[in-house]
Every structure is written in structure tokens, then in C-alpha cells.
Structures
1.
Amino acid sequence: MEAVNLSRTDVDDIAEHLNAISARIPLRRIKTKRDYKAATAALNALLDSGGADENAPLATLVTLLGDLIGEYEETQSPPDSTSPADTLRFLMDQHRLNQSDLPEIGSQGVVSEILRGKRDLNVRQIKLLAERFNVGVQAFV
């Protein structure tokens, strides 16, 4: 990384911009529910404005705010227990997959039954899904 030389004017300009941003978006460690609500509201507004695109001008800000929110959530709330079907549904959504995109589980009908809770994943399916999505098998147990 190249060294950055900042003049006093540069530093003052950066401080002014940072203060303006920080007045609207909490750019510090989140410690209270009030800060958390403000941060999530700001994140949602940024995402609604196109900040989810990694090439968007505010993508770095979205990432930073998301990291701060994630850090707070990890320390404040116990992880929700989710069903294997919920985990699979989440991963399918994240990877933009539909039921026919999971031949390792079985037919589209089998996947549908699993997602509706009418059928459980078996050990073979769990291992294959864990491998495919690069998660631990415990995510599906």
C-alpha cells in the first residue's frame, strides 16, 4: 500500500466530511439498542438507494455499517435456532438457486417436501449440501 501524504487542509476536509456522515450514520461500535436501531435504519436506507451493489459509491460504507451491526448482533443476541429447511431456504436465496438446482438432494419434488417440512434431510444429503455451500454439517442438523 502506498503511503498517503495529507496536508492540514486535507485532514480538516476529511474531518468535516466524517462529522457530517457520522451525524446521520453511526460509524462507531454499537453499544445500545438505540444505536442498533439507528444503524439498521441507516443500512436499510443505503441498501434501498443501491448501496448493495459492490461497485456503488457507498458500498464501502454499507460494508462497514454491516460489520458494525453484525458485531453487535453477535454479542447481544443469541443465535436463532433455525430448522434445516430454513437454512437451506436461506442458502438457496443467497445463491439464487431454485429447487431444480439441487440435484444432490433429489428431484424438485423432494426438495419441495424438505422446504415445506414434510421430509427431513438424510445424512448423505446433509454432507453434500454442506460441501456445496461450504458450511459445516451442523448448519443442517
Note: Helices lie at 8-24, 33-51, 59-76, 84-94, 108-115, 123-133.
2.
Amino acid sequence: MRLRNTAFCILWLLLALPLATFAAGPATPQAAGLVDVTTVAPAIRLDIRYATPNNFTKVTVYPAAKCYLRADVAQRLVRVQADLEKQGLGLKVYDCYRPFSIQKKFWALVPNEDWVAKPVEENGKPVSGSKHNRGAAVDLTLVDAAGKELPMPSGFDDFTEKARRDYAGGDKQALENSKRLEAAMQKQGFEPLPTEWWHFDGPGWQGYELLDAPIN
């Protein structure tokens, strides 16, 4: 009788678990096929904002300041960095791969598709979200040889018209810096997001699955 009750309890617990438990994807970014950018381009500087309170949420949402990307996207970034170094410039990265669960938190804070991709699930599985969730998008800026950020039309994650690529106001040099970054990224196949001067998508991002592997 005790054995039967124990078996019933175990079965009940299994049925009570969320579907996502059974549909869990890779346990780490590496297992999902993502590359740590610092291993292929150590000269690229990191300022992973969501691993600090210095972001629009005002809280730390990433457990580690890491930049993971799909291998092809990472290699394209390597070439951008190499081109910029010839000009005495370089890249500083704000955000790379983002777990789907984090995307849901962002959407709860800013439910505006001009600024945050809406995370959608069906039967506990992600079906729509950000290119960041695919490891195929990167947020970044330009720095000089000493690592100092060049002026840009707005700060990172500025949810105003100043962040848009068609913004024509403000400082002329900042606008030129934004265009310079855009040209360098497009040369290597990156696609600029119209609403955010800092956001670029890797070509073929549609072919990568949405992931929720935790950042480590």
C-alpha cells in the first residue's frame, strides 16, 4: 500500500511539472553551439549592461558578463573589429545572446515592439522572440584606441526618437559616428535595426532556434 502511494505521489509530481521542464533545451550556451566572443576576438571590449544594474531595468539580470554568439556571427564581428583597428578604433559590446526567459522579463517591463521583441510560446516552447534569443544579434558601439566610447546620438537602451537611425537632430559628430558604425557592420553582412543605432542582426538569423540556455 505504501509503495502504491509513493508511486502515485511521484506520478502526480511529474504531471505537475511545467511542460518547459520536459522541453528544456541545451543546459549551456556552449552546448547550444554558441561561441564566447572573447575567445575569438579578445580585443573586443565588453560592457554587458544586463550583468550590472546599469541598464533600463536598474537591476542585474544576467549572472555573468559574457558575450555568446553563433559561430558565423562571431566571425563576422571579428572581421569588423579588424577593419576598425586599421582606423584606430574598435568595438565595445553591450549585449549578445539573451535567454528567452530574460526576454519575457524585459517584455513585462517594456511591452512595446518598437523596442522589445515580444516573446511568444506555444505548448511551453518559444516560437517567437528576439534575435538575441537566437544568439544572432549584438548590441555595441565604437571606441577609440584607448577604449573610450565615441559620442553617439543617444545612450544605450534609450527608448526615445534619438535612438532611431533616421534621427537627424542632436550633435553632428555623434550622427557621423553612428553612421560609421553602421557602415562597418554592414560591410560584414550585419543588418541594422531601424529603431536602435546599437543593434545589429547577423544574416540568416531566421535559421537559428530560440534558446533559453542560461548564461554561465
Note: The helical segments are 2-16, 19-22, 37-40, 71-85, 100-109, 172-187.
